[in-house]
Write the structure tokens for this entry.
Amino acid sequence: MAGTGITTDLVGRSLIGENDVVGTGGSAFRAVDPMSGEAIGPDYDECGPDDVVRATTLAATAFAAYRRTTPDERAAFLETIADEIEARGDAIAARVMAETGLPAPRVAAETARTTGQLRMFAATLREGSWLQARIDRGDAGRTPLPKPDVRQRSVPLGPVAVFGASNFPLAFSVAGGDAASALAAGAPVVVKAHPSHPGTSELVGRAIRAAVQKQGLPEGTFSVLQGAGHELGAALVTDPRIKAVGFTGSRRGGLALVVSAQQRAVPIPVYAEMSSVNPVFVLPGALAERGSELGAAFVASVTGSAGQLCTKPGLVFLMDGPGADDFVAAAGRALGAVSAAAMLSPGIAEAFGTATRATASSDGVRRVAEGVPVEAIACSGVPVLFETDGAAFLARPGLQGEMFGPASLVVRVGDDDELARIIDVLEGQLTATVHGSPRDRELAADLVERLELLAGRVLYGGWPTGVEVGHAMVHGGPFPATSAPATTSVGMRAIERFLRPVAYQDVPEELLPAELRDDNPRHVFRRVDGLPEI
Amino acid sequence: MAGTGITTDLVGRSLIGENDVVGTGGSAFRAVDPMSGEAIGPDYDECGPDDVVRATTLAATAFAAYRRTTPDERAAFLETIADEIEARGDAIAARVMAETGLPAPRVAAETARTTGQLRMFAATLREGSWLQARIDRGDAGRTPLPKPDVRQRSVPLGPVAVFGASNFPLAFSVAGGDAASALAAGAPVVVKAHPSHPGTSELVGRAIRAAVQKQGLPEGTFSVLQGAGHELGAALVTDPRIKAVGFTGSRRGGLALVVSAQQRAVPIPVYAEMSSVNPVFVLPGALAERGSELGAAFVASVTGSAGQLCTKPGLVFLMDGPGADDFVAAAGRALGAVSAAAMLSPGIAEAFGTATRATASSDGVRRVAEGVPVEAIACSGVPVLFETDGAAFLARPGLQGEMFGPASLVVRVGDDDELARIIDVLEGQLTATVHGSPRDRELAADLVERLELLAGRVLYGGWPTGVEVGHAMVHGGPFPATSAPATTSVGMRAIERFLRPVAYQDVPEELLPAELRDDNPRHVFRRVDGLPEI
């Protein structure tokens, strides 16, 4: 890129601190362009155990200095990362498209989301309430025992391992929400890049490395390891220098990491966002009022990004009655007109085929419609919509399994009792959505109350795809949606996953962290004796 | 108790909802008076699997209604529990002393702490910031996509299992911090009483049942199961209706529950507070200035409550030099004058003997002093103080094992480098304490920074025993001090363990929980677009 001094040529290396490293794992792999099905260069050498130790040792060394940076310094660092990503924007976008088949508008939106959330974490760092600063004033005269002065703030856990996600090569990968929130917390990050987009990971990794250098931070603050095998991830999670793990991916992959982390001499938390079918409930009034309209809108949510979103609605429950046929007919028409799109990788395309064939062959399931095949795309997913009824759904627990891709299952529900029985058997979810009308008021109120126990986010109207990055967002939910239901991986509270509270008892002013000193030099939000400080 | 209408006769039953139940586990046990070593009645029949199902089924049923109570209603319930405990105060105190051998002043203090924290949780419930209410305002005009209205609050996880602790028959048992914080969160509680104080558990359980009835709450809001075997605890933790676990006790017991909980079809969090030796660091200036005084004060902290506190200082590191001999001599003199006290149970007395004999027989360890045996007490622990040096400590990892009881180990540290190496090998702790003087400033600053990564609470001066219940307290810490280092089991943030955030997207005003409605009818603290609401 002439004039910017930025090189965006890929060299096919892992980035360990300041060094470009040829992985020592003994094998190599390439990305695959899902449009053509062809491998694209350069080669990436798989990292081995020695590379893991090198990166985590650098991270542990960096932690001592990095955690002492001020929130302002870390905010500037995050903003510089965003700038460096934008400076490489064209090269990153081109490589994302080549490696994932995602279309340009989606890549642009995901880039904006990635840089936007880095900058939002910067603002949050400066505001300071994430520190959870609290002061309980002492009372030397209390009887029978003096009351100590106790102050609390949060400290980072230590180096964090982040696993890049296949379906968000930017927003949930090298500089995605897990990395941004860990870096914000004061934790160095070692990323295991997702093997389906190594080039994107290298480019974004270089952007972060440039920011590390510009801000004068220790080199071990950030590393990216390339690899396609499971051994690398297991070695990273079981490395004693790693203190927490962020993961977005499959249920099998997430649970394997959880088990590895629990078997360590010192277990660590794994924040795995895994599996969700995001049920949608369309109530009688809404169906009667706008069944067709909802059916068409539903299909747009199912097929966007080729259905490869954690929040894709994979189950829709229609209360049988007026408008239900209209919903199904409109959904079928809409889906029948959607062309197959590239899927992220050959493996995902194959798994999608397996999952949809299993649903298609289930007793009591009917195929409503199928989209338009596109021969020119090597790894494509043809959209498909299935239908069944409540009794069949209740009889076949397998029908609530995730079909990752542009597919969904409509379930016609006979009555409120059957609906209640269905909700009782649903697994934990990232989202649950209700469509109602004023005449559904009573049932809607009941549903919202039930669904808040099932999901991390409850929507009324609209569709669950599209997760707004903010202060109130929860992208999480009960198992198996996540392995840590009390947390969120999107939004500002994601930082809490990498922090731990510490109390300081009777520690003199000059030995206290700045944000706990009487005069509050960093002007952070604090609670004094339980109430907001005036 | 004439005139109060309160019966404090023990009937030897488990309390399952409204019913006094004879456990169906097939065996029976009695408490033991540690002063006499004699069993004291009545018999308690061990609960079996059927009793667990009965209690958890009632709890699950109660949850639907109990979680809908307002924070004000739950606050009144907690206050009523405190009142009911006080109304039975004399009977409870007498039984605690008989079952545990704890002296009257300690029992009075623990009773006050138990009722005090119930009332503090009530005040916290009314203030409302525990709900973590947040509103991100929507913007229908945003491009390219409208911004949704997203609101967040916390909901309870569901029924909680609480394990009574041997060493705090009141403050960490049936109505202790785990139960109080779970009930505050809106979670029904099933307590497994500790088998060393079944009568105390029955009396306190009756106090809570009376409060349930007075407040018109569902009977399944609270149950107490009696039992002495491990099967009962395992059955409770693996019951699918239980959604979280609070435990205070041994490392072995805590880890067993963690494993059981992780192997469930739907894993649940176990908040286990397990094992800590609470290192104390006495710096050169402090030793030179007041070595003798510190040595004597240290012994008071080691031997109070017969050393049976999670925060007892089990290791004290003296920087060798002027005053170190004075510290050891004064500590030896003080400890040599302390009489053996009753230990909580025959099992604990036996384990204490085993642990101290292991330390005594370690190479490089010298016994500094021993307290005064008291033949009249059947289960007693004779205080004992050991001494070693840094090199021996580093060579023998077993020396940082917990000796639960009135014993501690003094370690003479050669220099700052040796101190740094020692800190590197210390396990996670509930507390770490520094004693310094103005001339220790540099070393103290460095230590406080290191220790905040090792412990949940860092003290400067004073002693770690005595945990102030407040808003800023952290009674937690890295593994193996706890199984959940980001949480506290004492203080108001303990409630967070039993909550989970939920986001509500575009949910209309009339379907929102009250605390998220625009007009904030409950006047709870909220953040709007990330900042405190004006």
